[in-house]
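The passage that follows is intended for readers who have already worked through the single-chain material. We present the inputs for a multi-component assembly, then the predicted structure in tokenized form, and finally a short commentary. You are encouraged to pause after the input and sketch how you expect the pieces to fit together before reading on.
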Amino acid sequence: MLILTRKKDESIILDGKIEIKVVEIGEGKVKIGIEAPKDIDIVRKELYEKVEEENVTAVEYKFKLEDINKLLKQ
Amino acid sequence: MKVKTRDFGEIEVSEDKIIHFEDGIPGFEEEKEFIILFDEDKDNPFHQLQSVNNQYLSFIIINPFEIFKDYDIEIPQTAVDKLQIENPEDVLIYSIVVVPEDIRKMTANLLGPIIINHKKRLGKQVILEDSRYTTKHYIFAQAFQEEGK
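Having made your guess, compare it with the prediction:
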């Protein structure tokens, strides 16, 4: 992983089109501003990982579709 | 074309039924083509999002609005653009369901809805920035609550 040091109000430019700026530095956290083209998805990593984990669990079901629908009618 | 499915064997599917997920689905980023399968009774709430290329990869999905009456989301602009959404009527929204062995404990992922532009056959799992929703909402708790009202 590339590691850079930045001060408040300094930025990094990715690929000439995405800007990541340190907006505020506090105790144990930083506030980051991101400017990116509209087709770039920006998401907190922990949320992405949660969804990923949920999807991996979701494909593990044991029932058949018709059984699930049948069971629920009871 | 022929598609091998998890629960219905090999079926014939016309090309225009295939939904393209350009980014795949988190955890399955390499899976880019899916079809939606309904069981015989189309009124049944549970459907299947079946991978076209991997027979054993499928998700149980529901229309979240049928179960979670006050579910209310805003589709992020990135998704509107990527899915080329021009008309709200072209949009289908599903939630992936986890079905554990104790089926009554099944949960729906309301944080990461599957958004589909059925006119363009484009789909994407969107991760919402909305603290009201998580990846696990009990479907039955909701159903019981509704009944109790």
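Commentary: Chain B has a mean pLDDT of 92. The radius of gyration of chain B is 15 Å. How closely did your sketch match?
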